[in-house]
Every structure is written in structure tokens, then in C-alpha cells.
Amino acid sequence: VLGASPNIVRAAQVVAPRILFADRTPPRGLAGLLRGERDQFFTLDYSDERVMEEFASVLIGDLSPDVVLSVTESGLLPAARLTSVLGLPGTPVEVVRRTRDKIAMRTCLAERAPALAWPFAPGSDEAAVLTLLERHGTCILKPVDGTASRGVRRVEGLSGWARISASERAGAIVEKLATGVEVSVETMSHGGRHTVVAVVEKRTSPGCVEVAHLTPAPSLSPSDLDRVVSVTCECLTALGLKDGPSHTELFVSDLEVTVVETHNRPGGDGIADLVRLTTGIDWRRASVAWPCETLEEAVAAGAERAPAAAMVFFTAAPGIVRSVRLDAPKLTGVRVVSWNVDVAPGDRVGPLLSSADRLGAAQLAAGSVEDLDRAVESLLAGNVVFTEDGLA
Amino acid sequence: VTTLVINRHPLDWTVGADGSRLPVSPSQRVLLTRTFGSGLRNWRPESFPDVVVTDMSNADQLEHVARWLARTREVTSIVSLHEKDLLMAARLRESRDLPGPTPAQTLPYRDKLLMKRRLLAQGYDSLPLVLPAQTVGSLSSVPWTGRSVVKSRWGLGASEVVVVEDDEELAAAVDYLGGDATRLQIEEFIDGAMCHVDSVVVDGEIRFAAVNRYLNPPGEFSRVRFQASYTLPPGGLYDELLAHNRRVLTALGLHDCVTHVEFFLADRGVVFCEAAARPGGGGIDKLVLSAHGVDLVTAAVLLQCGVAPDLDITSPDAVTYGAVGIYRNVVDTDLTTEIAQLGSAVVSYEYIPQSMPGEVRHTTDFGHLIVVRAAGQSGFDDVLTRLSEKVDRATAPYAEEVA
User: Fold this and answer.
1) In this complex, do A36 and B36 lie within 8 Å of one another by their Cβ atoms?
2) Which of A19, A289, B277, B365 fits a 20 to 30 Å CA distance from A196?
3) How close A370 comes to chain B (CA, Å)?
4) Are the Cβ atoms of B53 and A60 closer than 8 angstroms?
């Protein structure tokens, strides 16, 4: 398992009798994480291909793994490469590459699933970008291999493009702006059969940073959901993903369902907790246990199954924190599962440019989608962290 | 400069959990260790950011991983203090042209049969008669009388040793010790107390040697509650053992290392038992540090890094120092309060919580280690008696419970 957080380590240990963990840096408390001689740990920079080739030479005999996994973005391609070098079953390198590289994904979908094609241009192809902007007006620029909303920005026509620096253009993709309800879909695939585990509605800031996830998606009708499931499965099949978890992001409008991106890993941002709260499935466990157990087996014993659940991230205007709400307010029909504010009075709050700039989070379970939606909107209204103008 | 540490001991003993025994900074350290036996005890990423934790029960696999680390981290020195890993570390050094003990230098201190043959060949004959086990069909044919000792040529300390009296016991012992007679030796049983001499060898010279006596023969660890090593006063036996130690080390080869050599005090005089090119276990390092101011473990680490240790040897005094180990199956609670009642006789006390529960398998499987000081032999005996009473009191509730 490459690049596993302590949560993933513990999830993997539930199902795997012996595990080799590898990460760039060892986690604090390593001794407590490992199960004696059953688990081993290797410090290595798995993003370095040469390092991984050398490491493969060690994985023989008793150290030979049955499967190589990663559920962290930076570990997906190295895990696929190691899988290939060791001749193990798993997702091929080219499939992972299509999910990591948004230009490769768009190209593949255009070829194999024309109904899912979406106008785009590489940021380095000036002529193609200008054509795209002339034809569609507002577009979105994002890093080809980016995650966590980093580097995502709107490009308002040709004048907007002129303000984009050469360094931002390099390694970026420019796409026609997709509109509608933004959702993500958690799926598990076995032998090319895709099972949708959850559809999660996303709320974002004006700067495209994710500030809430809700499931079930309050804004989708049953027919919308059908279209989401259909497009997701078609997308995964077209990309060649046959086994394991995936996290696909889409925009849903009355006219179309647009694939934004997909990854062969579970969603982050606490989405695994929302899956557990609403379905009982231990999604972290399932995401590493899929080679040896079914989704049903990953259902936590005695698990709660709330009708709806959400993650809400706290934000505030840039400035100095004046006060914070340390305890959750009363929210009708909603149970606050967790409430964590990461800043304190006196802290400096900067602009909300990526997920890392968020100021804490609450996890909610609700008796109905309507109650959940109201609670999320209430918390997003900005009554948790209060700032005043300062040096931020 | 990068140092690879291959560790099986509690990490804070080997190189210090903070790596303070090593002459290199954290970014120049690579730690290959295990969880078993407290190999990660008190580990912190700040001290050893590059760590590999593996299963060391498979020697081939361990060597494979060690070679991978030595190659990919481009290590310039290798530290390895555990008996099981000395030869492997030497092979790695040789293959990468690194400083430190070579296989040729290490082997006579590792293979107990070769060790005795080398000593004989060099004219040192104060040792037990010994034969390769595969050459002994029946004990009736061995050139000695009385009991025989079957032991692994590659064993650790007093483990993998069986005393036998007849052929039936011999066959059972060979079976018990793995069944491969080529890995075993048979020698005459030597009766008597045991002593050990711990030395630091630098540039072909014995720069330091400490002479100590065991309270009980190490092989009796399963039958006693305590084991102890204590200092011998200069003169007489002390000098005789120093002379034997010099002859043994000279015959086996004087390379940069710390050595631990054991002798019997038999009716026929001082008889060699065995030697190792590593610091002695069971608190001997603490005993020597208290009595002589020499840190044997640090000296061993530095020598393997190609650095000459600064031996600040203190002059011997009339005080008897002892390192007393209480076996971990005797009492498993912290005895700090009880030991403190021994007053100024106590130099240090360490409670070693059971990281490896179960039977005592080695002569150094202590749950408590106390370094004491007393005025001469009689004073030391008195401290032992008082210590024994404290342990009796601490174990009484268990005894009542069992009754």
C-alpha cells in the first residue's frame, strides 16, 4: 500500500493478513500502527520511477505482494507501475494515466464515448484555446493533473485568457464551462461491472473550492440520478477501469451530464464518512479490500444508516479571526457527528484559494434530505468563524 | 556520508532512540529495524527519517532488503551489533568496499567450531575438546569423559546449547537444534564458574579490557531468578584472565571492534568458552560504564563507522560494581520503590516492560536491570541478599495467589 494515511492503514489491516506499507516519510507513531511482524514499512519516494524500479527488485520471496494498491492521488500511477513490473493483477498504467491526465481523459472519451465528449484545448495550444474561447465564451482552466481545487480558475473570454500567465498555461487544460449541479460519484468496479455506492452533491465557493458535500444529492431528481449513474458507468468503461474504487465528478444540467474528472480511488474530503453514515459501507476498507472481499462484506457491523449526511467546511472572509463558534448550533432534524474548528481568535485567514484554506469542518447526519440541505446552507452562511479586517 | 543501522535490539540501546551514538546527522542515517524486541522503542521520525521496518526472521529476506538499502542509499558505513547480523553486515561492507569488519575478520568470532580450531592452530590450547557434530556417531568415541555439550556453531550466547550424557540424548539434542549436524559442534562439558572480559580493539591493539565474573553460569538462566556480572579486583585472577583474553584475541584476529570473551574457572584453571565481536548483553555495557567510564556500545558503533572512540578510562577503585538482572518471568511490575530502598548502593535501575511475553529464552531476558556498587566482594554479596529480599516481597502476592 503506497502512501497510506493512518486511517487507510487501519482499514487495510482489517482484511489483509500481511501488509507492506511504503511512504515518502514515516508516520509518527509508526510502531503503534504496525501489527508486529505482520506489517512492514519502507521509506521511499514512490513518485520516483527509478526508486520504484529498484524497490521492485526487493519484492521477491516472502516480500512478494499479491496486490499493490494506493488510494492517494500521487500513489495511483506508481502503484500501477509496480503492479505491471511485478506482473500482478490490477489497474493498468495506461488506464490510471487517463484518469490522472485530464487531456488524456478528454481525448479518450471523445474517441470511445462520443456522447461524453466535451470541448477542451491544451493550455499550451494557443490557437486551440482561442478557438475554444471564441466559440464558448467563459471557460475553466485547471492543471492537467491537479486535485483539491488547486489552480482551478475561470477564464472570461479572450480578455481573460490574456491575463493568464505563461506558467499557468503550461501543463493546464482549458475546458468549456460546464454548468448545473456539481456532483461526485463513488463507485466500486469488479471485472468491469460498476456499482454506484453514493452520489454526492457538491457546493463550491465562487473560486471553485469545495465547501460542502451532501448525499443524497438534494438537487437531483430520480431521472437525474439515472443519468448520473449511466454517464459514470459509461465513462469508467470507456477509460478502461475494470476493478477497484473510483471517484467521478460531474455537472448535471437539464440538457446534459458532463464528466469533469475521474480518479481510481475513493473521494477525499470526508466523503468516505458520508458513505459509511448513509450506507453502512466502510468505504476506506472497501477501497483497499476490493481484491479480497465484496462491498457487502465491507458493511460495518451495526452501522448506522442515516437517510442523509453531509460534510460542511467552514470559511470566512480574509482577515484576523475575531471569534469562533466552538460548539455546533442546534440544527433541526440534524445530528452533528463531528465539529472541528481549526482556527482560533488572533489567527490570520487568507483568501480561499484551495481546500487547504478552509478553516474546519462539520459532519452532519440528518433524518431527511430537506433538513440536511437547510442545515448546510445555514452553516455555509458564515456564522462559524468571524473575522475582521487585518493583515491577512 | 550515510550510515545504515541494522538493528534488532531495543533501539535506545543500540544507537540511542535519538541516534546520539551515531557520528552522523539524522539525514545521514538509514535505519533497518523490526517491531519485535522493541526494535522501534522510542523511535521518532526526527531522529531517523529514513526507516525500514521489516520481518527479520527470514535471514535471506533481511539481507536482500539490507543490500537494497546499502545500494540505493549509497551508504558509507554499516552499524550492526546483533550477533545474528554481524556476518551479513560484514558481507555487505566487503561487497561495497566499506570500512569496518570484513567477513574474514568476523567469521572466527562467529563460527564457534572455527573459533576453537583457530585458537588451537595459533597455539592456544586452554579450551574444551571439540568435534564437528557430524563426525560423532556415538559419545563413546569422543576423546573426553563425562558429559558433552551440543551447541550450534552459529548460536547466540547460551541459547541453542544442550548438555547430554548418552547417545539417546545426543540424538534428541541434534533434533532439537534443527537436525542439521553440520551446523552443530560437540564439546566436553566444563564445570565451573564463569568470567568474561570485554575489550575495545583499535588499530590492532587492545586499548581497553574489563574483567568481570558472572554470578551464575549463563547456561543456567532457566533455573535462576537473577543473573549478575560484577567486577573483579585487580591482581591474581584478574591478571590471569587479561592474559588469556589477550592470547585469544590475538589468535582470532585484532580488528577494530568491541569484543566479549567468556571463560570457565575450572579445576584445571582458566578455560576458554567462546568469544564474540560485539558488546556483551545483559547490562554489561552499563556495568563497564559505571566501573571504568567506557561506553562499549558507543565504542562499537563508532568503530563500525570508521571512527576511533575516545576512551576516557577511569582508574579502578576498591568498589565492586555489579549489573544485576532479574528475569522477566520473576516479577513483572516496576520495582523502582523497592530498589530505591537499597539507597546509595544503587547506581541505576531500569524496568524493562515485557515486550516479548512468554518464557525466558535467553540469558539476558531481564525484566529489571540494576547496576549496584558496594565495598568489595562482601559488600556486593550483602547488596544481593538485600535485593533478593526485596524481590521476595514483591513476588509474595503472586505466590499467595498461586497457592
Assistant:
1) yes
2) A19
3) 47
4) no
**Residue A293: partners with Cβ closer than 8 Å, 6 or more residues away:** A15, A286
In this prediction, residue A391 has a pLDDT band, given cuts at 50, 70 and 90, of: very low
Per residue in B76-101, pLDDT (tens digit) is: 999 999 999 999 999 999 999 999 99
Dist. CA B67–CA B64, nearest whole Å: 5
C-alpha grid cell for residue B152?
A: 550450534
Strand, coil or helix: B292: helix
Percent of chain B with pLDDT over 70: 96
Cβ neighbors of A307 (< 8 A, separation 6 or more) are A278, A366, A367, A368, A369
- Say what the pTM is: 0.88
Assess contact for A4 and A25: CB atoms under 8 A: no
Separation in Å, CA A178 to CA A138, A185, A201, B242: 10, 17, 15, 87
State the Cα–Cα distance between residues A194 and A235, nearest whole angstrom: 11
Which value does ipTM take for this structure? Answer: 0.89
Q: Which residue of A has its CA nearest to B67?
A: A58
- Each residue's pLDDT tens digit, B345-367: 999 998 887 655 556 777 778 88
Asked whether the beta carbons of B339 and B318 are under 8 A apart, the reply is no
- Shortest distance between the Cα of B74 and any Cα of chain A, in A, equals 13
Among A residues 24-83, those touching chain B with beta carbons less than 8 Å apart: 25-28, 30-31, 34, 36-37, 39-43, 51, 54-55, 57-58, 60-63
The residue in chain B having the minimum alpha-carbon distance to the alpha carbon of residue A35 is B35
Assigned C-alpha cell, A1: 500500500
B41 touches chain A (CB under 8 A): yes
The shortest CB-CB distance from B68 to any of A28, A54, A62 is to: A54
Strand partners, B79: B5
List the grid coordinates of B262. Answer: 567468556
Contact assignment for B35 to A34 by CB distance below 8 Å: yes
Distances (CA, A) of A146 to A103, A257, A262: 12, 22, 12
Query: Distance from CA of residue B66 to its chain's centroid?
Result: 23
Backbone φ and ψ of B117, nearest 5°: -65, -40
* DSSP β-ladder status, B29-33 and B51-53: parallel
Of B44, B49, B65, the CB nearest to A58: B65
Angle between helices A93-100 and A73-86 (to 10 degrees): 170
